[in-house]
Amino acid sequence: MGSAVITAAEVKEIAREKGADLVGIASADAINAHPPDPKYPQTIERNTPDAKSVVVIAKRVPVAAYRTKSNITYSYMNRQVIRRVEKIAYAVCDALERRGLAGFVPPSSWTIWELKMGTYGPVSLRHLAVEAGLGTLGLEVNLLTPEYGPRANLEAIIVDAELEADTPMTEQVCIGESCSRCLYSCPVSAVRHFGLSKKACMTAAQVTGFPLFAGRWRKFATEDRAAKARFVRSKELFAYWQGLTHVVGSYGTCPRCLEVCPVGNDYHAHLAEPQKVIPETTDTKRAQVAGFKAARKEGDEVPGLSDYNKRWVGPEGYKGIVARQLQAFKRRQAARDEDHS
Asked: What is the pLDDT of residue 1?
């Protein structure tokens, strides 16, 4: 493996030309030294001993997907973007190889059962994106980018050349406890204090996903003949079939935390008004948020805000990045309106 025959700036330009909306570069050594979960290390060296750098790309999901009446419509649109960003990653990988770099796209949506059950692949794209300077993790541990909030999909290309790495953001992009809109909106109360109950989230986000699918067949095995016959002819089984063949419903079906997040100019432009009110808000959720605020103020031990996890949340805390962006957005909108008057 030789030295880089291309600069980091050239790599980013290639990614943008192929269709990436955002692109950053992380050091493989940094990721190896700071795996998201040391007990189940999603390190780059687990994938290959030759890696030196990771190129991380993002493709935004069109904002209209978050204003549809059906979550299935959103899921279908989201899956289209996932396929698109996968193709972009391959195109970048191919272009880099033609320039002398050896690289590959890791299987981000593949579960490694030896590590942990669930959607736990060989790399964590969210954490790679933080290391590549694209954003920080939010209260519900989605990646929040300043440009699109959590409304973007990610891919990565692992390469064998030492490219200049981007500096991770140290300011917390997520507004945090004083916002908590993701928590208020969650239909299954899965949001924790910079954490997530994946088991609860799954029941809304993967309505035809593997765990629910397997559970339904376990139930099927104990039912009488008449119940089995009804299930075979049911809409429920047809939904599972659609999930298997089209992925719709089996991955990312619930977009509520993404719809209401106020980070990003796409939110200011298209979602602020329709998502202003969060009908899922309850007194129980308000009390939960009050507890989060008190814990933060008192400096209580919070797993999601440990010294280790702050690396991805933003060690400096929230300092007003969203407010500054909103002010800049309003100035641009006013200038545009004046130009067209």
From this structure: 45
